[in-house]
Design goal:
With 430 residues, the chain is an alpha/beta fold. The chain contains 19 helices and 13 strands.
Length: 430
């Protein structure tokens, strides 16, 4: 097993680049990229980093030269022969050849496009502009680089024994959480922690701990590279990015209202089974469910990613029942800022009423709260969101208004069009 403290103390750039493979990304990015490849290869979008935790002065903590060095390294990466073979031949969600040969051929030739980096006050403005198919691939690596450079900046100067104690305490914390989760009957849980992880090696350690500690209750990891290396399931479906872009590309308000369902129609043509999970909260879950075509209710399940998770689960149960579906046969995946206490609470509330799944993210792979010097290793909320599509601003409303993304005037316009009623303002920790 890797000696994490020694690697952190001794790490050199060549041994430990932050992102070491095109596959060091979330599985859903590849699934969405294939849909974009088939239908939107000519559309252009921009992505940008948004630090919601503005009290963290990233530009003062992270050296701009180190940041550029890591981003430039990512631009040299390409899919290896072994990685291509894994994508072509592996079974995902019980399906072989999920990725079409022509998409794999594109991915084999893919290189990360250029980026724009500027310092604005105490933050960095990091933007990726170009073909949607290329810029979408920056999201996870860009976040991983910023998060790990932040971790390295905080840890710099700590001694060997201090690091050993730090990681021993963090490992104990994770293991105690896993021991508690192991007591839950019929648990299904996956690692969703790539985007805001403490570091690649730490995420890999957390996955290995879950494999051993949870056995069949561990469903897999969203990180493709770790899934390949540890021979576990790569998990994920789709994200808010798709309806955000589809709505921005729409020419009329009616087409904007139809955009979330157009996304699902395209997705249904591409994928089946457990990949048919709806994500309703981009422009408000209540409106999405009320206007959804009946065929959407036949999908496998729903992902609840903002707002009150209990209220969201109850809303989904009532909706399925109103559409003649048996909620006990449906899957609800909870994925918003989860930690062990919340997982236990949601599991107890819904067990036996619906099938539950949990996407455990930042507070699995980056829970160093109170362990680092002066709390500076505590996780914080940073995202990489699509900002525009073909020159038009993109918008996310969310069930939690604090997670809204977009220019204020456009957010107001989208709320008028989608009839969005503001839900509970919940603190955004991660």
């Amino acid at each position: 097993m890797t000696d994490l403290a020694a690697r952190v103390y001794n790490h050199t750039w060549k041994i430990d680049p932050i992102v070491r493979s095109v596959l060091d990304t979330d599985f859903y990015k590849l699934l969405m990229a294939q849909t974009i490849f088939r239908r939107h290869a000519d559309d252009r979008v921009s992505f940008g980093i948004i630090n919601r935790s503005t009290h963290i002065p990233l530009a003062r903590l992270i050296d701009v030269g180190e940041l550029r060095e890591q981003l430039d390294h990512i631009r040299t990466l390409s899919l290896s022969r072994g990685e291509s073979t894994w994508l072509r031949g592996n079974m995902f969600y019980g399906t072989r050849q999920m990725f079409a040969p022509e998409f794999i051929q594109w991915l084999e030739g893919f290189r990360f496009p250029a980026y724009s980096l500027e310092r604005v006050g105490d933050q960095y403005e990091l933007v990726f502009e170009g073909p949607w198919l290329e810029t979408t691939m920056w999201e996870i690596p860009a976040l991983a680089v910023i998060m790990e450079l932040h971790s390295r900046a905080v840890l710099r100067g700590m001694g060997k024994f201090e690091l050993q104690v730090l990681y021993a305490r963090a490992m104990t914390r994770v293991w105690e959480k896993i021991r508690r989760l192991k007591q839950l009957p019929h648990l299904g849980i996956a690692d969703f922690g790539a985007r805001r992880r403490h570091g690649f090696l730490w995420q890999d350690w957390c996955v290995q701990a879950m494999i051993e500690g949870l056995g069949p209750s561990f469903l897999g990891t969203s990180n493709c590279l770790i899934a390949m290396r540890r021979e576990v399931e790569a998990v994920g479906t789709n994200a808010h990015e798709l309806p955000m872009v589809y709505a921005a590309l729409a020419e009329t308000p009616a087409a904007m209202l139809d955009a979330p369902y157009k996304v699902l129609s395209d997705w249904q043509e591409d994928y089946e089974g457990n990949l048919r999970i709806i994500l309703p909260d981009t422009f408000g879950s209540a409106g999405f469910l009320a206007s959804a075509p009946d065929w959407v209710a036949q999908w496998t399940g729903i992902r609840i990613d903002s707002g009150d998770p209990v209220a969201g689960g109850e809303q989904a149960i009532a909706w399925w029942q109103s559409r003649g579906q048996d909620p006990r046969k449906k899957l609800a995946i909870f994925s918003d800022g989860l930690d062990v206490e919340e997982i236990e609470r949601l599991h107890a509330h819904f067990n036996g009423r619906i099938r539950t799944g949990f996407g455990w993210g930042t507070l699995l792979t980056n829970d160093f709260r109170g362990l680092g010097p002066d709390g500076r290793l505590d996780p914080f909320s940073i995202v990489c969101k699509v900002l525009s599509a073909n020159g038009r601003s993109t918008v996310k409303l969310s069930d939690n208004p604090l997670k809204a993304v977009g220019p204020p005037s456009e957010i107001a316009r989208y709320r008028r069009i989608f009839g969005h009623a503001e839900a509970m303002h919940a603190p955004v920790v991660v």
